[in-house]
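seq:
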Amino acid sequence: MKKVNIKALAQELNLSSSTISKALRDSYEISAATKQRVLEMAARLQYTPNAYASSLRGKKSKNIAVIIPEVADSFFSLAINGIEAAVKVKGYHVLIYLTHESFAAESAIMKEFYSGRVDGVLMSVSRETTDGQHIRQLMAQDIPVVFFDRALEELPVAKVLTDDYHSGYTAARHLIQNGCRRIAFLGMSETLSISHHRRAGYQHALQEYGLAATRKNMISCTADPAVNYKLVKKLLQQATPPDGIVASMEKLTTTVYQVCQALQLRMPADVKLVCFSNLEIATILQPSLTTITQPAFEMGKTAAELLLRQLEKKPVRQAEAVIIPSELVIRDSTKKS
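struct:
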């Protein structure tokens, strides 16, 4: 549905555009009855006032929105740096919006953009997002969207991703080759595509080496660190606990280290850990952390460049998916005993 403007309201009500504008501003020059007619029609047609129209005079806002779940994760901090590197040279400003892993918050943020606040959107969806109707509605307003890292695969938009399936496989295979036989997987969501692909890669590695991927060793973690602590502690207190862990999100690093300390488990002697992480302090943890490191800066920069191409009306395949490989960085948390 295209955006309804003042001219469309004026035609519907057989009034001048200036009368509509004044009524919407609650001007004293317009009667209460006319104001009521205008407001009722505006509501019926889902009119959203453009707060920037008068000042921009038809020009672009030169703002790009970046919608992400959080900034505590170093991946997103690095990705934002990549985005800014690409857009600032083109004269665009970056506006950061946090969903805090909430679909409701994500939808509300999108609605704010109907008024022309931004020219385009770069986004990584929340863990709760399973439906893309709010994104389709924004795209119907001629505002382009590009996904990076977390995407809704069914939407025909450009995406910048890493090789999550292969990365999950690589992490699990590395643990197997270093002697692990009971390997757990800590996921972040049952619905997020990146979590699904990482788990599928992990399962493939176990199957390839003739090992069992049991349900009790595949944990779906939450956004609450306290809940995750209890889940990981219960996992490692099993009668036959895992001897290796693939953690699919960075925030679980602290949780696993804390649980091992509380249970007096030695890493890597009792349990080995690989974590999807861009943490700079990975090298100084005790023991240093083996990571699957995503190319965060490059992913952010590439996503921004794809969005800029659309804003400049250059050809971009809407369903295009750019895959940038991640890297296994081996450190002491998976050292062979």
